[in-house]
Specification:
By secondary structure, this protein is an alpha/beta fold. The protein has two domains: 333 residues, 3-Layer(aba) Sandwich (Rossmann fold); 32 residues. The strands form three sheets. Strands 3-6-2-7-8-9-10 form a seven-stranded parallel sheet, with helices on both faces. Helix 8 links the parallel strand 8 and strand 9. It is globular. This is S8 family serine peptidase. Pfam families: Peptidase_S8. Belongs to the peptidase S8 family.
Length: 399
């Protein structure tokens, strides 16, 4: 098993290695909107807004923190606790770039006149709950964070906090290469209480061993049962080379050159399964806004049934069941919500027929009968063995 130092380093690296990589050109914010609109249109998000925009839904973004003063998120963010407290030196403010970027893709509402500038996320009327559970690689406390067992359970603690504080969707744009019991139990806790859990499939698809074998290692929490594991595709819907390929992948979403908001009014462009996960969490928020009581399994079913750009054989290790489609997912959720359940199955007091339920008669055998039966079975077995030996000698014995 990996040590705590290696485990936490792998966790943070997986979350951030293919996250926001370059600041967008210092252009007007409406150029950001122009760059983001084609991506949303490819997922049918603008058309889905006629049905839902995320109102009444809370999405927990468990990440490096979210800047509540970012213009595209102002008024929509509840920070939540900082489970990394003490890792950074005293007086050092958290960077919060990766988390702010993901939150804007999920729930950005833009800014400026009529909200026409900046990032407009998939569910612009959703609220964001943002416990801080990881540090970014270039924060001064990163080494202390990855080398201290004190911080080993931050993800699990964040999941439980989010669920206990009303999260309808949990976004995990992060991962590690092996499972932990605490995270598995926290995911089960979330799903059992009605939260939809969405996680990044991971960015190890370009590794030499992955390319040679065609199947990458599993990433967690994405590969836990009940979690929607998200892979990344490019603008044409093709599997992104860095995105993990394994049988845990459920669906895919855009993850190449995705623009999102960052702290201090800046915008960042990045690749990874992290932004792909954020798109899917946004669609889950639209579904839960329209059908607040829909079970997580049915939300997943609606998202899967609504996919487009499906693989030729229906499923592929790289893209799952296909690229998500917000409008189609909402249509499928409507169908599932209206499905008639009354009158299906048999009443509780009926058993495979209309007649009365009769007790089963239990016949007790005496010890002598049981012994005689056992002796007969033994003699039959001995006879069968003897017959087999005779036939073997006739067939394979000396001539």
């Amino acid at each position: 098993m990996l040590t705590a130092r290696r485990a936490l380093a792998a966790l943070a690296a997986a979350a951030l290695a293919a996250g926001p990589t370059a600041a967008a050109p210092p252009a007007r914010a409406d150029r950001v909107r122009d760059a983001m609109t084609p991506v949303l249109e490819s997922l049918n998000v603008p058309r889905a807004w006629s049905l839902a925009r995320g109102r009444g839904v809370t999405v927990a973004v468990l990440d490096s923190g979210v800047d509540p003063e970012q213009a595209d998120l102002a008024g929509s963010v509840a920070p939540g606790p900082d489970y990394t407290r003490g890792a950074n030196p005293a007086g050092v403010a958290p960077k919060r770039l990766h988390g702010t970027n993901m939150a804007s893709i999920i729930a950005g509402h833009g800014h400026g006149p009529d909200g026409g500038d900046g990032v407009l996320g998939v569910a612009p009327e959703a609220r964001v709950l943002a416990p801080r559970v990881i540090l970014e690689r270039d924060e001064p406390g990163f080494t202390a964070f990855t080398g201290n067992e004190r911080y080993e359970g931050t993800i699990a603690a964040g999941i439980r906090y989010a669920v206990d504080h009303g999260a309808d969707v949990v976004n995990l744009s992060l991962g590690r290469s092996y499972p932990t019991r605490r995270e598995r139990e926290a995911v089960a806790y979330a799903i059992a209480r009605g939260a939809v859990v969405v996680a990044a499939a991971g960015n190890g698809g370009a590794d030499r061993r992955a390319r040679r074998g065609g199947h990458t290692e599993y990433s967690y929490p994405a590969s836990f049962p009940g979690v929607i594991s998200v892979a990344a595709v490019d603008a044409e819907g093709r599997h992104a080379g860095f995105s993990n390929r394994n049988s845990a992948v459920v669906v895919s979403a855009p993850g190449v050159r995705i623009i999102g908001a960052g702290p201090d009014g800046r915008y960042w462009i990045g690749d990874g399964t992290s932004p792909a996960t954020a798109f899917v969490s946004g669609i889950a928020a639209l579904i839960r806004s329209r059908h607040p009581k829909m079970a997580p399994a049915l939300v997943t079913q609606a998202i899967v049934a609504g996919t487009g750009e499906r693989p030729a054989r229906g499923y592929d290790l790289g893209v799952g069941f296909g690229r998500v489609d917000a409008l189609a997912a909402l249509a499928e959720s409507d169908r599932l919500a209206s499905a008639r359940t009354q009158g299906l199955g048999l009443p509780a007091d009926q058993r495979f027929g209309t007649g009365p339920v009769r007790p089963v008669e239990v016949v007790h055998r005496s010890g002598g009968l049981i012994t005689a039966y056992a002796v007969c079975c033994l003699l039959a077995a001995v006879g069968a063995a003897a017959g087999t030996a005779y036939l073997w000698r006739r067939r394979y014995g000396p001539d």
